[in-house]
From TrEMBL:
<dbReference type="InterPro" id="IPR042378">
    <property type="entry name" value="IDD"/>
</dbReference>
<feature type="domain" description="C-type lectin">
    <location>
        <begin position="45"/>
        <end position="187"/>
    </location>
</feature>
<protein>
    <submittedName>
        <fullName>IDD protein</fullName>
    </submittedName>
</protein>
<dbReference type="InterPro" id="IPR001007">
    <property type="entry name" value="VWF_dom"/>
</dbReference>
<dbReference type="Pfam" id="PF00059">
    <property type="entry name" value="Lectin_C"/>
</dbReference>
<dbReference type="GO" id="GO:0016020">
    <property type="term" value="C:membrane"/>
</dbReference>
<dbReference type="InterPro" id="IPR016186">
    <property type="entry name" value="C-type_lectin-like/link_sf"/>
</dbReference>
<dbReference type="InterPro" id="IPR016187">
    <property type="entry name" value="CTDL_fold"/>
</dbReference>
<dbReference type="InterPro" id="IPR001304">
    <property type="entry name" value="C-type_lectin-like"/>
</dbReference>
Amino acid sequence: HGKENVDSRHSRGRGGETTRFHTVNVAQPVRFSRKCPTGWHHYEGTASCYRVYLNGENYWDAVQTCQRVNGSLATFTADQELRFILAQEWDLEEKAFVRKDQRRFWVGYQYVITNRNHSLEGHWEVAYKGSSEVFLPPDPIFGSAMSEKENVLCGQLQCFHFPTLRHHGLHSWYAENCYEKSSFLCKRSQTCVDIKDNIVDEGYYFTPKGNDPCLSCTCHNGEPEMCVAALCERPQGCQQYRKDPKECCKFTCLDP
């Protein structure tokens, strides 16, 4: 994108001959705002994508679903990341939750019970070791579907529907029977997404989501890099025209 008009200029060359410069479009720096597939929420602080699934699966099935999309059940590295999750509007269906104002979903923690005497005692662990910087939740609320035989419970994060509660970061942690069915939160690394919303593998060329269908970039660590822009000549014999936002150098003539 850039200049639309054709600008002809003249200058004097070394041998005295006239050199004609014919400027068509001038490529501009491009900012890429989309680094996650459709349906995922991007957080710059961790370069990660997040998505809530409403399937109503038990913990182990939820783990497999997240793995199929190159992710895992979400764990959190800092309070800011958790606050980002709590502030999101997840487009969730009310029927997926016990109460309309509350939302609970599986996350990547398990609570290991070490003592069942007078009160339940135990500690949180990360279900799947990924980052050494993951923080562990505080003492949980124990779910209603607990079994006396189970020594491992699975983590649920509860947040709230009402915007005022959500933006104040109010939430609770539950330790629940792992075979209960619940919505769940997946987390994956940010990725390259092309202009047609396809996920692009590392090292491949693609046209990123944005305003310029004439860019060709290389996918590197989930970011478009080494981008090259094709410069399009305006359609001949057409005074008014419109660029196609999805195809490079394709125009629609608007003349009568």
